[in-house]
């Protein structure tokens, strides 16, 4: 049976009964045909393209290894470290703590990282740990004018925490070049971060201390005998360990007296 087409008024009433309450356009649109066509985007006009802000380019951070490789003296090394922005610790500290003492001294002491006092004054080992280190040096007839003191990490970690392995890794080229430039007769390594970074050993200091371990790097003419021992901060918390450190210092004194000048 054929039915007669609805009049516009009847069709409108039918749509209203079916729930249609809004008319989008005056002409019907075949959405299926539209979906089969690839979407196109109108090209930007020159004015519109010029109005889009350019994405700022991030400055390229030169690696610590590249910076360390290019320096030829301590002044250049200090400038390179102060210009380096690849370690996040630099953004939270006050300044780069480079070194203290005599760079021509035969004993080079390497700690872990600066504390609050060191960060404020810009010198390594000037707080409570530094005062104890001064007494340790005096016990073998030395002082800061006859030793050279620095750290693996030159920037203070927040809250005086230990430096993270990634932070130590970023700073390792700097301390490696530092040792090469100073070229001491003996190294005294204070604390776990210093020992593990420079000697690539995972054993505890309790196992490693008491004897020398050769430290080598490509630009050194010969290996340097390195003595791992407890950090002065640890000795402040564990006074009984001072006996072991005293023995280590006596061995350092003996090595300094017998090592070739």
Q: Total number of helical segments?
A: 12
Structural class designation:
alpha/beta
First-to-last CA distance = 119 Å
General form: elongated
Fraction in beta strands: 5-15%
Spans where pLDDT lies below 50 across 5 or more residues: none
- Average pLDDT metric: 88
Strands in their spatial order, largest beta sheet: 1-3-2-4-6-5
**Rg estimate, integer Å:** 34 Å
Percent of residues in helices: 40-55%
Order of SSEs: HHHHHEEHHEHEHHEEHH
Largest sheet features: 6 strands, mixed
Instruction: Give the strand tally.
Output: 6
Summary tags:
261 residues; alpha/beta; six-stranded mixed β-sheet; 6 strands; elongated
Short description:
The protein is an alpha/beta fold and 261 residues long.
Strand and helix layout:
Blueprint: H1 8-17, H2 31-36, H3 46-51, H4 64-70, H5 74-83, E1 100-101, E2 107-111, H6 116-121, H7 128-138, E3 148-151, H8 165-182, E4 186-190, H9 192-199, H10 205-208, E5 213-215, E6 224-229, H11 232-237, H12 242-258
Parallel strand pairs: 2-3, 2-4, 4-6
Antiparallel strand pairs: 1-3, 5-6
Helix pairs in contact: 4-8
Description:
By secondary structure, this protein is α/β, with parallel strands linked by helices. Strands 1-3-2-4-6-5 form a six-stranded mixed β-sheet, sandwiched between helices. Strand 5 and strand 6 (about 225-230) form a beta hairpin. The chain starts with 7 loop residues before the first helix and ends with a helix. It is about 40% helix and about 10% strand.
